[in-house]
Amino acid sequence: MKLYEALARDISESILNGVLQPGDRLPSVRKTSASRGVSPATVFEAYYTLEAQGLVRSRERSGYFVSVGAARLPPEPDTASRPAEDALPIAMSERVFDLLETTMRRDVVPFGSAFPSPLLFPLARLARMMSTSVQQLDPWASVDDLTPGNARLRRQISLRYLIDGMTVPADEIIVTNGALEALSLCLMAVARPGDAVLIESPAFYGALQAIERQGLEAIAVPTHPRDGMDLGAAERALERHRPKACWLMTNFQNPLGSLMPDEKKRDLVRLLARYQVPLIEDDVFGELYFSGKRPLPAKAFDTEGLVMHCSSFSKCLAPGYRVGWVAAGRYTRQLARQKLASTLTTCAPAQGALALYLEKGGYDRHLRLLRHTLASQQAVFMDAVRRHFPHGTRVTRPKGGYLLWLELPGGVDALAVHAAALAVGISVAPGPIFSPQPGFENCLRLNYGHAWDARAEAALATIGRIVQAQMAR
């Protein structure tokens, strides 16, 4: 157990045992650092962890305070999903498009959105970097960086991998128009219409749409809300269906928020290597962790080049720039060809701005503030769910990201909740849009990545009343 984890455990036990009561102030970082003989950074990480667990809250310039005992938080979902074992065609686009339309309206409370608040990002500084990079843009860069992307940006991305202990050459990295293009290009490189792809259950609707768009079939594998895909079930599916690829999110999965442990990631990579099935790893939330260290991607355990690691700056730095990438392993050449044949290149000024921002420094400082904000908002949001939703509601406790998955009491129809909430200006993401087959009818995904204020509190209370009204019928 790391030092910050031990400290967080001790404080957590004090809260659960009633030694620390709601409203009590925790010792200052300096005092705890001195009394425990650890660094201030260790104390901060422990307090961040407690925030992510919903046990403490920070108050600006006042310190950390006990918010609510764990016994009073909504219980977690504790069972894996049970999807049908068949390979299925997908028909999702219309349903998903209806949801996305609502999240584009600023008058709607965006609990159903897949994006955090744009106010969380250093957009003014990025704009200055954009201005500078455009003025310094080499006219030949539009030719030199045509398909793989800006060489300086790819170098900076390669350095980010190195910080995490991974050697990923810049030549293996292809810059894309957001992570979704990277993921779609991966599918195009390894699968053809009619082929099957292994996915989680529930799965990100963008993955389902991409599979549908390319005429592929989906094999949904049981997935646990805490630690991800069931590898035993995955092996049975590999043996039975011989899929052409596996697409999943190992870190803070959308919509569950699950985090696959390192040992399980290693086992996953070994399993897929035995069957020579490529892994398309969607890791857009990897930088939004609440613990002391970024969770490794499955790519870190890949020795055969079978893992195509996809990520983006959209969720953690520059949401409107639409710049993502893929570290494509043995499939680099195939992906470069797919990129050349489809969108050709990615916006040069946006790439230049991001490269300059990363070179100048400040990215990690921004990420620390962003993680702290999201962890604090998660704790407040979960406490509000406890207060406003009926008994029997279960809520995940992600260790990163900004999405919560709610299992509502039996008999509640999430699609009806979605419709009723939208009628009063609130969007939610109903569970059925995350599955290619019937299921998750009583589930919601809610976004806590926007500022918590009186409007958000009232909106969540309204959703709780809608759920209560359904239960009363």
Overall description:
- The chain is an alpha/beta fold and 473 residues long.
- Helices cover 42% and strands 14% of the residues.
- The strands form 4 sheets. Strands 4-11-10-9-8-5-6-7 form an 8-stranded mixed sheet, sandwiched between helices.
- β6 (217-224) and β7 form a beta hairpin.
- α2 (29-36) packs across α3 and α5 (123-135) crosses α13 (348-360).
- The termini are far apart.
The biggest sheet amounts to:
8 strands, mixed
Q: Bin the strand percentage.
A: 5-15%
SS class: alpha/beta
> Termini distance?
49 Å
Helix proportion range: 40-55%
Number of strands: 16
Tell me, briefly, the overall form: globular
Q: What does the radius of gyration come to?
A: 22 Å
- Stretches where pLDDT is under 50 for at least 5 consecutive residues are none
Strand order of the largest sheet: 4-11-10-9-8-5-6-7
In short:
With 473 residues, the protein is α/β, with parallel strands linked by helices.
Architecture blueprint of SSEs:
Elements: H1 3-16, H2 29-36, H3 40-52, E1 56-59, E2 63-66, H4 93-103, E3 109-110, H5 123-135, H6 141-144, H7 151-163, E4 173-176, H8 178-190, E5 196-201, H9 205-213, E6 217-224, E7 228-229, H10 231-241, E8 245-248, H11 262-275, E9 279-282, E10 307-312, E11 324-327, H12 332-341, H13 348-360, H14 363-388, E12 394-395, E13 403-407, H15 414-423, E14 426-427, E15 429-430, E16 443-447, H16 454-472
Parallel strand pairs: 3-14, 5-6, 5-8, 8-9, 9-10
Antiparallel strand pairs: 1-2, 4-11, 6-7, 10-11, 12-13, 13-16, 15-16
Helix pairs in contact: 1-3, 2-3, 3-14, 5-13, 7-13, 8-9, 8-12, 10-11, 14-16
Family: In the C-terminal section; belongs to the class-I pyridoxal-phosphate-dependent aminotransferase family.
Protein name: Aminotransferase class I/II-fold pyridoxal phosphate-dependent enzyme
Domain HTH gntR-type: 1-69
